[in-house]
């Protein structure tokens, strides 16, 4: 009887370790996915900031990784071409060529 009890405890422990191993694997995959998406988000934001800085010189932007669209007098919509796709609305002052970000949104396909 004691042997059956010890064997059942060993089976229970081995099952628990198997579940813990699967849980740890899923946690590592989730962390890796989070880090990768964070790096992609930062890269998208950097490309948008570069396009905002060069908004007064449209010729430089056309060779860049951004879509630039006029949305009215001094209003511009700038979006990056990669994933994740972010779009910002920008107001540019004619005299000083300083851009002000009004809002942003993530574009979904």
Indicate the low-confidence ranges by residue numbers.
Answer: none
Following the backbone from N to C, one meets helices and strands in this order, namely HHEEEE
Percent helix: 40-55%
Helices, by number, come to 2
What general outline do the C-alpha atoms trace? rod-shaped
Strand numbers in spatial order across the main sheet: 1-2-3-4
Distance between the termini: 63 Å
Strand content: 25-35%
Largest sheet: 4 strands, antiparallel
Q: Write down how many β-strands occur, each being a DSSP E stretch of 2 or more residues.
A: 4
Give the radius of gyration: 26 Å
Secondary-structure class: alpha+beta
Mean pLDDT: 87
Fold and architecture overview:
With 109 residues, this protein is an alpha+beta fold. Helix content is 52%, strand content 26%. The chain has two helices and four strands, in the order H-H-E-E-E-E. It has a four-stranded antiparallel sheet with strand order 1-2-3-4, with helices on one face.
List the helices and strands and how they pair.
Layout: H1 2-53, H2 58-62, E1 66-70, E2 75-80, E3 85-92, E4 99-107
Antiparallel strand pairs: 1-2, 2-3, 3-4
Characteristic key phrases:
109 residues; alpha+beta; 4-stranded antiparallel β-sheet; 2 helices; rod-shaped
In a few lines, what is going on in this structure?
With 109 residues, the protein is an alpha+beta fold. The chain has 2 helices and 4 strands; from the N terminus they run ααββββ.
């Amino acid at each position: 009887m004691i042997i059956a009890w010890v064997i059942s405890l060993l089976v229970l422990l081995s099952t628990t370790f198997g579940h813990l191993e699967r849980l740890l694997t899923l946690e590592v995959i989730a962390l890796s996915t989070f880090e990768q998406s964070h790096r992609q988000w930062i890269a998208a934001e950097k490309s948008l900031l570069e396009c905002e800085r060069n908004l007064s010189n449209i010729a430089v932007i056309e060779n860049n990784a951004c879509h630039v669209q006029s949305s009215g007098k001094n209003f511009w919509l700038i979006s990056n071409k990669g994933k994740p796709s972010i779009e910002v609305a920008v107001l540019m002052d004619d005299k000083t060529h300083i851009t002000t970000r009004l809002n942003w949104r993530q574009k979904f396909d």
